[in-house]
Amino acid sequence: MSALTIYPANQPQQGNTCRDFDTISEQLKTIGVQFERWEPGSEFISEVEVLTVMDAYQQHIDRLTEQFGFKSVDVVSLKPDHPEKQAMRQKFLSEHTHDDFEVRFFVEGRGLFYLHVDDKVFAILCEQGDLISVPAHLKHWFDMGEMPDFKCIRLFTTEDGWIASFTGDPIADSFPTFEQYLASI
User: Fold this and answer.
1) Is the pLDDT of residue 76 over 90?
2) Residue 84 is labelled as binding a ligand
3) Fewest CB atoms within 10 Å of the CB: 8, 14, 34, 147?
4) pLDDT class for 72, splitting at 50, 70, 90?
5) Is 96 annotated as a binding residue?
6) How far apart are CA 68 and CA 101, in angstroms?
């Protein structure tokens, strides 16, 4: 089940958590974040080809592409046996921003986004069926855990895809890891 915890940025032990989807969506809307739940337009099995995954959610992808002018869409999948899982995790764990806004839809599995907005940090546990958008230039980081297991559709408004500008702020080090967060909710 999805979850949202809002922390004071300087007190990573003092978060308030909610698990109601509508409440999460409304809270995130106040900071310009779109949070939706998608249902597939057709059935598919777990280990399918990219085109089958895209076909299952095509009506949602078409709606967002028309709304935001996305120029590229892909599917990324990471499993616990991936040989570069630690290096990939470290890449996303440092606070960063993007010139493009980031949109991720969790086809399978889950991951934890942290959004740093002024004096607050919003931790959002995204699970299968959740879509989240991270506005351009919003400071954030992502924890996929030590044993990543997810498949996401990614949408980009540029042909270049994922390009990060790291802030150099060590704030992410003081917040719960994916595993610690799951144990706390």
Assistant:
1) no
2) no
3) 14
4) confident
5) yes
6) 10
Q: How far is CA 111 from the centre of its chain?
A: 6
Q: Residue 137, annotated ligand binder?
A: no
Instruction: Report the b/e string of 83-109 with b at 16+ CB within 10 A.
Output: eebeeebeebbbbbbbebbbbbbbbbb
Q: What is the pLDDT of residues 140-158, one digit of tens each?
A: 999 999 999 999 999 988 7
Going 176 to 177 to 183 to 185, the CA torsion angle's sign is positive
Single out the residue of 117, 124, 178 nearest to residue 4, CA to CA. Answer: 124
Instruction: Give domain limits for the chain.
Output: 3-183
In this structure, which topology does domain 3-183 adopt according to CATH?
Jelly Rolls (2.60.120)
- How far is residue 130's CA from residue 112's CA, in Å, rounded to a whole number? 12
- Asked if 134 and 98 touch (Cβ cutoff 8 Å), the reply is yes
User: What is the residue-wise DSSP string for 46-67?
Assistant: SS--HHHHHHHTHHHHHHHHHH
Q: Is 98 in contact with 162 (CB distance < 8 Å)?
A: yes
Q: Is the pLDDT of residue 56 over 90?
A: no
Q: What three-state secondary structure class fits 170?
A: helix
pTM, whole model, 2 decimals? Answer: 0.90
Distance separating alpha carbons of residues 15 and 8, to the nearest angstrom: 7
Q: How confident is the model at residue 43, as a pLDDT?
A: 58
